[in-house]
């Protein structure tokens, strides 16, 4: 049973009014590319690539209007660089985001690989650096650096990526983690540079991301909590003397249906199946015996323990079902309600919104049909009029008086 008290007292349905000063004037959409039909709802025992499915999925993302796709990385997954190159050849517009762990590639080699991808895709490459949130997973590929030093390595890695792309004469380096002599000039990207994203919610993640990243990524959190995190990133960017603050990327797993009631019913059905998958060992967890090490997962589990429903549509029970593994908080409701909820996050400053579903291919198609156009229509309205439209006011979702998710779903 959801607890209406979990919805913050400060939450309110925004009436048609001036656009908040914190709002991003633009928004772009990200999804994650899937290599085969296996999902948390219907796990398939495979470690391979279903090429026909992958082609269909990637082309569906482009047809749906997504701007980017994330190519994830894990010790037991396909190589993200190779997959990103395939995405670049299968699409004309979609931008591949290569997830990369600094422990797996020397920075000058990674710079060369990324610049090659960027040239092959005519400037579409992006890199998302994963410092590593689990000692267990890092050790699987021979990385035993303590967690508190992994972000320091990432900081040095970022500096070397940018120098490799921009230095016009050979240079040497003798740092804490990397050393070389007379490298360069390196292979140049298609344009001036390649955007660098990082994520994480440890103090070290904020320090590095605020000072150096082009993009800082978060998992979906309650609005007030995320606002504080964005303020922290911005303050660190300002303290570093940066001319531009990092773009904010936030990730959700929307569960939509024709009406809010049908969506909540679907959500409860989904979470039962997700719980069954994890209990049966059908999904991998990179955690040690004491639970997740990374702060993002710890925060997700804490929010779930405090309440199931936050703000207009944020649902945390899916995060609890996975043990806080990865991006797992949902937005639940009709397409209109979920689009309004996404705009709530845009109002907090998010300019990159990642949405991927639990029924992966079907959800990607549905998001393109029913959610992306609504958000883009509102952004266009704001640009033309300087004011909010009516979508957020007319679709309150969980902010409606007397709302209870379990009652809405008929789960008495």
Describe this structure in words.
The strands form 3 sheets. An 8-stranded parallel beta barrel has the order 1-2-3-4-7-8-9-14, surrounded by 4 helices. A 4-stranded mixed β-sheet has the order 10-13-12-11, with helices on both faces. The model is unreliable at 1-11 (pLDDT under 50). The protein is built from 15 helices and 14 strands. It has 412 residues and is an alpha/beta fold. The chain has a domain at 28-251 and 334-393: Luciferase-like domain (TIM Barrel), CATH 3.20.20.30. Helix 1 runs parallel beside helix 12 and helix 3 (107-120) crosses helix 5 (147-166). One of its GO terms (molecular function) is alkanesulfonate monooxygenase activity. It comes from Frankia canadensis. Residues 45-351 form the Luciferase-like domain.
